[in-house]
Request: fold
Amino acid sequence: MIMEQINKPGDLQKLNLTKAQLDELAQELRDFLIEKVSITGGHLASNLGTVELTLALHLAFQFPKDKIIWDVGHQSYTHKILTGRRDGFDTLRQFGGMSGFPKRKESSCDAFNTGHSTTSISVGLGMAYARDIKGEDHHVISVIGDGSLTGGMAYEALNNAAQLESNFIIVLNDNDMSISKNVGGMSAYLESIRTDVAYNNLKEDVSNTLSKIPVVGDRIVQKISRTKSTIKQLVIPGMLFENMGVTYLGPIDGHDINQLIRVFSDAKRLKRAVIVHVRTQKGKGYEPAVKNPAKFHGIGPFDIATGMLKKKKMEADYTDVFAKMLCNIAQKDERIVGITAAMPDGTGMKRFAKEYPERFFDVGIAEEHAVTFAAGLAVSGLKPVVAIYSSFLQRAYDQIVHDVCINDLPVIFAIDRAGLVGNDGETHQGILDLSYMSSIPGMTVFAPKNKYEFMDAIDFAAAYDHPISIRYPRGVAYTGLKEYRTPIKLGKGEVLRKGSEIALLAVGTMVQTAAEVADWLEKEGYHATLINMRFIQPWDKECVDQLNGSHRLVVTMEENVLSGGFGEKISSYISTKNYPMQTLMIGISDQFVEHGTISELKRTLGIDTEGIISKIKNIL
Reply:
């Protein structure tokens, strides 16, 4: 196999492969990716679509001397293979194994750690300016998807890039998808370019014809290049990128390696920022992924022959529960509208979109806009529900503060994937939202203990006239402790067991763990008090007051960083009140959490049942 001859950066160029051999290598790479991801799970469709593009980049540039920044990084698998990490795919996204995203500590060919969208142009521009300041000689390439161009940060970077007077290459990987189908004006604009090949044909025909004129042909071609922008304006509507001051090349067939190499060679010679518009097919080479690219964007282990998941989902997860409840409250209240940021499938909003299409808004990968857009809807009398993953919502912190909370608007934040999410690693763990949301005056923060309390929380939020966020985890909705279902009252916890000496105060997913710890304590002869705190802000100070005098140890539990979290609030309050109670805070220490299964991560972090029992033992 040709692929087996590539074991380190630069090996591909040394092989001097023919076009037929490059096509053969592309097929080998696709077969390899399908086989490995079918076992480990991972991001498949996006990687299958960028095989030829990645091969062309590695043939046209010298890595790691040249620097490539992959926006998000969903499409970096082929890059990892070509830079000597083929063997790592046996442990892809597994605990202690290879990351599914670019990681600087894995290879010098990974120029920047990525995982969130719309960042690559800004990073690349910074690296290009740094290169020039230091007097270095290398190319900087930022690869960004058309889905990422729905995010405003990309345009801030493009606006800045127009001032650059040295080479900087932006590869626009256009597959008409982010995770779900792209939306908005930029998607329509790129579609107009895709379908209008007149400019490219005209440019090639005019250049070829004029260059054949004896003596003066080449000079005419050079002179006419001065008016090329005018020709583009006539043929391609808008010419947005050129008007911003960034040279545009394309669209190019992203699966034609030789054509890509030629265009990259042209782009390398320009002393300014240039966009190379590349058209690719998401999922190319594997029919199930072509037919359903959203499903195969990020997928678990699957059967290659059928494309079906090996492990069928038997029970409803929290996202399913949210989808059903959102439709329920929308049926009762016509003011309910749904907003998501390019994640209708992942957040469960797809069901709402089908039932209430006129009340559903997918704003693209634009979390900041989603929040302020919701504020505009809310101040006009509607009731927006904004569903965004925890790690993505943190990008809109300023908008939550200024546009929602200062205006005291009834926006509901459905914070999906809160807590540990597992195999996507550092950039996707939702371990900060309790801290950043509860830091905002006027924001109510709720974390349900199980499926039923989650349903009640959504009903509560629908009737609430102030900003509120409900954080819930990834995975199957917990149905235990269903015998405890008391009405939700603002800022009040729920006492599940009354005891003495030891009090376990937990929020969200950690209530289940706390119940298991309480069972162990019971066997050891300790009758612990168990409280489901429910609210992180405002939280139940009265229930803590009632522990004073009868308890000597208060254990707080949260699936969030300790810094700024729920435990710190309780500990600070107890200290301020001079209560003679010791506090043990259970949570995630000051660190970013890498990839692995949730159970593996909890055990490593010491926040699983056994780890908490061990810590309590040390104190007792």
Observations:
- The longest helix spans residues 19-40.
